[in-house]
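Example 538.
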Amino acid sequence: MLSLSPLLSVGVLLLQASQLVFSTQTRCSTFTLRNPSVNAVVANTTFFKANDTVAITNPFSSIDVSDLPAFCRVVLAITTNATAKSTAHAEIWLPEPQAWNGRFLGLGNGGFGGGVNVADLGFVAIVQGFAGMSTDTGHLSSPLDGSWAGPHNDNAINDWSWRALHLSTVAGKEVVQQYYGKPHHKAYYLGCSTGGRQGLKEAQRFPEDFDGIIVGSPANWMAHLSPWGIHVNLQVMPFDSPRFIPADTWTNVIHAEVLKQCDAIDGLEDGILNDPRKCSFRPETLTCRPGQNTSTCLNVEQITAVHKIFSTYFETNQKFIFNGYYPGGEVGYPFGLVGTFAFQILPDYYRFFVLNDTSFTIDQLNDTVIQLGETINPGTMDVVDPDLTAFLGPAHNGKILQYVGWADQLISSGNSIHFYETVHAFTQANTQLDIDDSYRLFTAPGMQHCLVGWLWSKRLRQASMGMPPASLDAEHNIVAAMVRWVEEGHAPETLTATYWNHNNFTEGVGFTRPLCKYPQMSMFKGGNPNDAGAFLCV
Ligand SMILES: *[C@@H]1O[C@H](CO)[C@@H](O)[C@H](O)[C@H]1NC(C)=O
Ligand SMILES: *[C@@H]1O[C@H](CO)[C@@H](O)[C@H](O)[C@H]1NC(C)=O
Ligand SMILES: *[C@@H]1O[C@H](CO)[C@@H](O)[C@H](O)[C@H]1NC(C)=O
Ligand SMILES: *[C@@H]1O[C@H](CO)[C@@H](O)[C@H](O)[C@H]1NC(C)=O
Ligand SMILES: *[C@@H]1O[C@H](CO)[C@@H](O)[C@H](O)[C@H]1NC(C)=O
Ligand SMILES: *[C@@H]1O[C@H](CO)[C@@H](O)[C@H](O)[C@H]1NC(C)=O
Ligand SMILES: *[C@@H]1O[C@H](CO)[C@@H](O)[C@H](O)[C@H]1NC(C)=O
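Predicted structure in complex with 2-acetamido-2-deoxy-beta-D-glucopyranose:
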């Protein structure tokens, strides 16, 4: 008996090792949620071994890779309103127990999109060891399509506006606890655009849900963003009017002139305006001379349009609606809101959420319509109230890290500044808090809306485009920066953005640059311009 025991224990060890793999897989495939505090049931589970092909697509997001670490995919069906029998689906992607960093990461959506953010679940949560959660917001649709909201689909509107994310977060945390046998120790959130709005909504309405919330260029004010976008578009439309500005003119004429007038302000002529607030662009220098080829200059109506597009937008009674575009992003603006009216979101907001009139066209926008959006605030989607004290204050001690690209072509970067400033003013006037202790805004020179432009890899969809952060450390990776702030009290002063050559991760780093904390800007101080160290935040 005794002589057998060494062999036996080797056998037991081998058995345990294989059982570990076997048991996680079994635990995954047999997982059920016991006694959930919200009405949620497991709809499906799938275990993916390391390097298994993960190919998942929905109308909002997709992923197709075969280099992820092992994880368990749990799909939940959540009843959001029992009377209406409305449901939302959430997915929780769970790394192997030994690979789990002990944290929960909620991931946001985009536009009017319905669909779990599977790209961010894979490329951000699983790659970095988080238990990730994303909701489909209660419906399936492309980000541009708002037709699911009407007529009068109030439960779907509420689910998309706030309810699905909150219920999914509560249920997702229970999945984490029951799967690992212990709770997460901190909860984070990351989202851009509608995802940014969702993050701010969580901070305001459910301050307990997350400890750190990363907010990219938020669509937090649809009642003003929608009319602003329509207004900007109307400055140049219709296509056959003299004021129409073709995309080539935006790039070759207007952008070229912006660079001529303003590129050197930050100390470096590199095609990027590090701080477009410093640029007082004068389009008059482009006025057509007699006989000049009109594709190389601007007529008087086009000059007026450019001025309006770069100006703050007020209602006819002078009420503030939205900040204008900043100079520097002209290459993207005709593909954003100016010109091809691909941006169906904005009229859909009025057609399916506010007016319930599918015949609404953008030329019908007037002050009454704008006011109606503000009064109805469908599903209470907007986050305008500057009081975030319940989240930021000592009762919860939460952190918000916000970012926006100066060349944002869908939501003027001025919106991020406006929201930050209103929260700042409120916090200062009504509390003893120093906003810098809990809420910081970073601006990214030359970066477009959430995912394109010259880029910082923080943006999760960038990861799904093959552009992970240059390093997963807290300087290069906004998620790690937030974790360090929450868990070690080390607040980020700057963040380092990485541009991959040709926006292609395999082609190596093109340059790095600091993202400065608002209201600072980055100035070139000399040295290698491809190196973040050659810039100062001032
Ligand atoms: C569960 O997920 C797997 C793949 O992840 C899929 O093949 C299967 O159809 C799903 N089952 C249900 C009932 O949805
Ligand atoms: C997954 O692929 C990577 C890279 O090819 C490799 O290093 C690793 O050993 C693979 N893991 C497994 C479990 O196959
Ligand atoms: C649930 O749905 C019913 C039926 O549509 C509706 O009357 C009720 O107001 C909804 N409740 C909530 C909390 O949304
Ligand atoms: C349009 O429908 C939504 C959703 O039911 C409702 O909240 C809103 O008040 C309606 N708008 C008007 C003008 O009746
Ligand atoms: C005007 O300029 C555009 C672009 O440079 C060129 O394609 C076009 O041929 C020119 N038109 C005339 C009439 O010269
Ligand atoms: C504003 O537009 C709405 C919707 O088209 C229309 O019903 C209303 O009469 C307009 N109001 C004014 C003052 O023009
Ligand atoms: C990225 O670059 C590699 C070569 O380094 C190339 O094979 C690949 O096709 C490129 N990817 C894209 C999306 O262009």
